[in-house]
Amino acid sequence: AQKITQTQPGMFVQEKEAVTLDCTYDTSDQSYGLFWYKQPSSGEMIFLIYQGSYDEQNATEGRYSLNFQKARKSANLVISASQLGDSAMYFCAMREPNTGFQKLVFGTGTRLLVSP
Amino acid sequence: GAVVSQHPSWVICKSGTSVKIECRSLDFQATTMFWYRQFPKQSLMLMATSNEGSKATYEQGVEKDKFLINHASLTLSTLTVTSAHPEDSSFYICSARSTGGDGYTFGSGTRLTVV
User: Fold this and answer.
1) CA B31, CA B60: separation in Å to the nearest integer?
2) Please, which pLDDT band fits residue B60 given cuts at 50, 70 and 90?
3) Distance (Å) from the C-alpha of residue B75 to the closest C-alpha of chain A?
4) Residues forming a β-bridge with B19
5) pLDDT band at residue B53 under the 50/70/90 scheme
6) With 90 as the cut, is the pLDDT of residue B99 above it?
């Protein structure tokens, strides 16, 4: 069963505008972690932001913020003031609960294109 | 911050040969290493998890004898693709967990092409 769902295969945004990338997850565990990564064409995985299930505040890291709605099981990434360098693939991931290894499960990703 | 060095960044090999990919944690001890495979325009699929000094745990559908994983020390894990075939061509990337903290540190990935 799909545990992380990213319904937007591609998103377009103009430079300097904000964009929201959607992510929903499925778990019955109370303790879990949610991550967002950026993958440019070079292939490296760049960590953007983390949200713990018990965190009461939405996580923020510079221009990135995570809109965490626990009851809806959604963890959307908001990028403010988009830049051309933000064009990349974005993956939402969840640390699998109840696994001793703490595996990360990834969504299918959203390709973001920022236009001038 | 924590760094995982992955080599080679790209490799081309002939069908039937074996290829070894190394992931080395440079400034921390990686007790657990995850190996992922990514086909073009697709997500990262976990292949296996290795813990230092023990046998790797493979995900369902991953051939253990084809993808040999060794985690002999707290700073080095290797993935060997044995008897590679064109369908093994993919992007392979490792990710390490440190002995503390909530972080995952990824290697830069290896693009394997089997001809």
Assistant:
1) 22
2) very high
3) 17
4) B81
5) confident
6) no
Subunit contact B102:A50, Cβ cutoff 8 A? yes
Write the DSSP symbol of residue A1.
-
User: How distant, in Å, are the alpha carbons of A43, A99, B102, B114 from that of A105?
Assistant: 17, 11, 15, 27
Position A98 scores a pLDDT of 66
Residue B41, amino acid = K
Q: Is A41 on the interface with B (CB under 8 A)?
A: no
Identify the closest residue of chain B to A4 by CA–CA distance: B43
For residue A77, the one-letter residue type is L
The mean pLDDT values, 10 residues at a time, for chain A of 116 residues are 87 98 93 94 93 93 96 97 97 82 90 97
**Cα A56 to the chain's mean position, in Å?**
18
Residue of B7, B44, B99 to mutate, testing the A interface (most A Cβ within 10 Å of its Cβ): B44
Q: Which chain B residues are Cβ-neighbours of A47 within 8 angstroms?
A: 103-104, 106
Residues 6+ apart with CB under 8 A from B70: B50, B56, B77, B78, B80
